[in-house]
Amino acid sequence: MERRVLGQGLEVSAQGLGCMGMSEFYGVGNDDESIATILEALDSGVDFLDTADMYGPFINEELVGRAIAGRRDEVVLATKFGNERGPDGSFLGVNGRPEYVRRACDASLARLGVDTIDLYYQHRVDRSTPIEETWGAMSELVAAGKVRHLGISEASSATIERAHAVHPITALQSEYSLWSREPEDGVLDTCRRLEVGFVAYSPLGRGFLTDESANRDGSAPRDYRSRHPRFTGEAYEQNLKLVASLEQVAARKGVTTAQLALAWVLSRGPDVVPIPGTKRRKWLRENVAASDLVLSDQDLADIEAAVPRHAVAGPRYPESSMRTLNG
Fold it and tell me: What's CA 28's distance to the chain center, in Å?
């Protein structure tokens, strides 16, 4: 597995593993299979694991902690705070207040069973708390040895600038794939100017850019995609046509649709690290193989023609979630 460097010194595998779906949002999980998937990822050279306190809520960090017990020195561990949830799963809003930052970090460390978090993200920007106050508290966590590097998620260029002035940002994590290319509207340029790495979540369009056609509509029990505009109605039908075109390119290349989509994200630059999520070893193996796929100029042109940037139908989140983004 190729290695890449985020920011000014955090070395990670070129592909990470998103662990969110193991505990929530993508149907019913299986802890034994999820742990086996994490362990196989480590054996395959994928050492960059991504979780968050709000996944589950809380239980995904515990799951990851159990999986890596005894192998902590093989893992680059990332987690997040900021999307506050109650014990009953209720969403309490975005919280960036300094006292919450400190409390959330201590709780994550305990659930993960570790002494230090390698990369600690602000999951969403709290519009009611100055970013300087949030990042002042996050910087204190680094000084205390509880966190090694700091990141931010779904932040605008202006917010990145302000946070970076308080403490260097190692990575911005935002959605980026063939059907979510908003970071190309200035944010990627800002990251590169400031030497901030870019971590691409949902690089497979929440499973839409795959060959698993039976699961594209998000209709399984407890699957949150059924509420997403791109997975419903006319938008869903329009987006299926795009995937059909991408499938043709993949077939000519002799790879799966997911591998082609992942290779495209990997081709965006050595500072871009996709973190495809999966809870099954079968799909992990398919994703890992994409790291060996080299795309020619003609391949890239064919991919762009199959999925033109502005052809994707529907916003990427329901309206309530779109309002939490700091675009």
Answer: 20
Mean per-residue pLDDT, 299-315? 96
pLDDT of residue 29: 85
Reported as a single tens digit per residue, the pLDDT across 181-194 is: 999 999 999 999 99
Q: Which of 55, 120, 121, 236 is catalytic?
A: 55
Read off the pLDDT of each residue in 95-105 and give the average, rounded to a whole number.
98
What is the rounded radius of gyration, in angstroms, for the C-alpha atoms of the chain?
19
Per-residue pLDDT, 68: 98
Burial class (CB in 10 A: 0-12, 13-18, 19+), 35: middle
d(CA 65, CA 59): 10
Q: Alpha-carbon distance 208 to 200, whole Å? A: 16
* Category of 16 on φ-ψ map: left (φ > 0), alpha (ψ -120 to 50) or beta: beta
The question of whether 120 is a catalytic residue gets the answer no
